[in-house]
Amino acid sequence: LLTALESVQARAQPEDVVVLYLAGHGDHRGGEWYFLPHEVTRPERDEEITARGVSAAMLSTALGKVRAQKVLLLVDACKSGAVLLAFRGYEDRVALARLARATGVHVIAASTREQVAAEVKELGHGVFTHLLLKGLDGEASLKDAPRTVTARGLLTYVETHLPEVSKQYKTEAQYPVAWSTGMDFPLVVLP
Fold it and tell me: How confident is the model at residue 179 (pLDDT cuts 50, 70, 90)?
């Protein structure tokens, strides 16, 4: 994952849109949230999570080095709302590098800091991912531009619908957590 992010850092140009989608397991240790890639074979061991997991701080730092002016991070993992803590001060860290350029950085996490992200067998993935796909397929399109799905439009769509849709598949409502700064930008222009 970090090697792929380094590749994006090297290749992305200011006019590019970078979308990073993570789906899998997540947990926090010592006040830090970690995405757990397949290399983490014993998630019950704190030392393995901190050694092999990808921390929220690592994600924030890596995305801060991407030259693209438009960035969207989507995280479908348990307790993923904690990833947003690493983005506090994000604007300060990249402000000088992006001075006078129109930028937009948006983060949408599937659940709160303490909440499990529901995966539903009949959907084939998480409820969060289900709504992302529906939103990108047009349900999150703008009223004034009905054929366009933007980063903020997708964020609003997921925030609005995830609690109710998750209740349809399990007993507890799932609440996404979002952070957004800068300009909105189109993700999909439908035919």
Answer: confident
Backbone angles phi, psi at 31, to 5 degrees: 80, 5
CB of 144 closer than 8 Å to CB of 96: no
Predicted model pTM: 0.89
**CB burial string 86-115: b at 16+ within 10 A, e below:** bbeebeeebeeebeeeebbbbbbbbbbeeb
How many helices and strands (H and E) does the chain possess?
6, 11
Map residue 116 onto helix, strand or coil: coil
CB count, 10 Å around CB of 120? 16
Short-list 54, 51, 21, 49, CA closest to 35: 54
